[in-house]
TrEMBL record, chain B:
Top-level taxon in the UniProt lineage: Bacteria
Domain Carrier: 5-83
Species per Swiss-Prot/TrEMBL record: Microtetraspora malaysiensis
InterPro entries in UniProt: ACP-like_sf, PP-bd_ACP
Pfam families: PP-binding (PF00550)
The protein, known as: Acyl carrier protein
Amino acid sequence: MTQDLGSVADSGTSHYVDLPAGRFHYRRWAPEVPAPSAVLVHGNGGTWATWARVGAALGAAGMDVLAVDLRGSGASVRPPAGSYGLREVAGDLDDFLRALRVHAPLLIGHCWGGAAALALATGAVADRVPPVLSGLVLEELPPDMAATATQPVVRDFLRMMRSSPEYVAKWVDLVCRDWHPVDRESLLEELRGADVQVYLSAIDEGAAAGPLLPLLARVKVPALVLRGDPRRGGMLSDADWQLARECLPGHCVAGELPGSGHELHRGDFAGFMRLVRELLATVA
Amino acid sequence: MADDQIVSDLLVFIRTQFLDGDPAGELTDQTPLLAWGVLDSFKTARLVGFIHDELGSQIPPDQLNASNFQDVRSIAELVRSNGGQAKAAQ
């Protein structure tokens, strides 16, 4: 399931879909024959590109993979501040699945995207009947969106969004020197394209949803909940993690990747894919 | 003297933030931080933030590279040459 990508642009193909909120961009890795689907949902400040290697790997494994740019992100519609609550974002995801007739996907979300995926899967925030899912992967689900505001990785992201392109490029090369070049490239793209106002709106308005970890108790499909090492930038403290594991139903698993911080799928791609494969085996 | 104070500030920061206080007293200004894995991705970002926010050093992009983060001595020189000051001197 590993791919030797030369650059982000080599991964998947771009498409657009018109949803009630506007036009959304997504990247797709489509097999030639019908296949189980996976939908990848990036974190705050990110785009589909964060999944460049994950999407390619899942596609190579025979899945029909779609990675959406959430509202205000990448090449998707950018509504004004005031419309970045989890209700709206989860609603977009629901509309996305319906518009493209994606049936029973494995839904994989990172941070903000994980919060939206959880809101959608449980129907707790979106006020919609949850779509049929085959499974759920929640990577670095924040305890609540408000809690992200004080995280060091968020302060770094804001600092880089406000820095010169030259500085950001050197910072990524230095700080993420152990990452795969494609993952460094995708982070650089995200930092250069992110909208500070949207980024802050997603935090402020997402906070209205309140604590997210108790929602885990309402997950009905097989799920993998992953956290990064809090000493390396992971967002869940040991107390948060204990609560998450207590809330998780018995058909779900909690996983950690030693040494990885907030960006498990880029910081430890092989470990992340191993755990996803293990979940897929149970889903199949 | 200024350099010594910057070195001291850096050592205190790294010991307290990254090494649980360094109870064995192993960290020196010549400890190879990158080679020994003291500075992983997250900690490098924390250190760059500390240099910017607490020591007031504006590092130009072309100096933001691994060779300048080899050890505390090289980082202190980077800080000093880019307008940084020890915390006590601010």
